[in-house]
Amino acid sequence: MTRVLAVVLGLALAATGAVFAGGGKLVVATDATYKPMEFVNGSGELDGYDIELMRAVGRAADFEISFRNVRWDSIFTTLLAGQCDAVISTITITEDRRKRFEVSIPYLTVDHYLVVRADNQDVKSLQDLAGRRVAALQGSTSITVLENARSRYRYVVVPYSDFTGYVADLVDGRIDAFVAEETVLALNDTPEYRGAFKIVGDPVSTERYGILVRKGNTRVLEMINRGLKMVLQSDEAAAIGRRWLK
Predict the structure, then answer these.
(1) What is the spatial distance between Cα 173 and Cα 175, in angstroms, rounded to a whole number?
(2) Which helix (H) or strand (E) element contains residue 158?
(3) What is the three-class DSSP state of 153?
(4) pTM score, two decimals?
(5) Fewer CB within 10 Å, N or C, the chain?
(6) Do 157 and 143 contact (CB within 8 A), yes or no?
(7) How does DSSP classify residue 28?
């Protein structure tokens, strides 16, 4: 009787699109190295703007979430391989990504800036970087922006596989700048990097972030968009922003 009931329940869940990569929970991948957006806190738990927002989306749309911490350089293949149901990791919405994945409604619009050490008085914009080393995350839209302007400003583009690597290298003087959203200045409030960075010049780009789902998985996309709309239209999204986007 129990086995029959389990089979019937499984078929019912499949019919409603509620069977996820994690069984009864929506498995969401993130690269938790990008404070304050997604990171591992002092208690060893995932935390940050994207994490809190995604949890709020799950509560609003009434589905459970299980997070997977996945390196940036394999996060898209993890989704394509069906090892997760969705990805939230400060992912910019682009036409290329719309072709490869289902993309949620935008949940945040941010400006990306050139970031230098706080004691740097020489670099004010990209044109001051001739002969210098500037970093961004490999496979990100920021590195595409840098590559497109490299011949004009004659700097050296240094790709990194994770955010923490180039943050540490800027502090240690191994690179001269990196490109990131202005929320990166939240690092200035941490014991490790207190007051270490500043942004300079005008925005390098303005980008919108979205949540990715496998192509054709419209059931999961609809669930996420339903919850996301409710959160964005409530006071909760603003409260999450105040906590993390200083």
Answers:
(1) 5
(2) strand 156-160
(3) helix
(4) 0.82
(5) N
(6) yes
(7) E
pLDDT digit string, tens, across residues 110-135: 999 999 999 999 999 999 999 999 99
Lowest mean pLDDT among 9-13, 24-28, 190-194, 202-206: 9-13
Q: Is 32 exposed, middle or buried (0-12, 13-18, 19+ CB in 10 A)?
A: buried
Both tokens of residue 210?
């979205």
Burial 89-113 (b: 16+ CB within 10 A, else e): bbbbbeeebeeebbbbeebbebebb
Whole-angstrom CA distances from 42 to 33, 39, 46, 132, 195 are: 13, 10, 9, 35, 20
Q: What is the mean pLDDT of the chain?
A: 88
Taking residue 234's Cβ as centre, other Cβ atoms within 10 Å add up to 12
Query: Could you give the CA distance from residue 34 to residue 89 in angstroms, rounded to a whole number?
Result: 8
Look-up: residue for tokens 């996060």? Answer: 75
Residue 75 CA: distances (Å) to CA of 47, 61, 83, 85, 215:
18, 24, 10, 11, 15
How far is residue 210's CA from residue 188's CA, in Å, rounded to a whole number? 26
How far apart (Å, rounded) are the C-alpha atoms in residues 208 and 106?
6
Q: Which two tokens stand for residue 183?
A: 């929320």
Q: How far apart are CA 80 and CA 21, in angstroms?
A: 12
DSSP 81-126: TTS-SEEEEEEEP-HHHHHHEEE----EEEEEEEEEETT--S-SSG
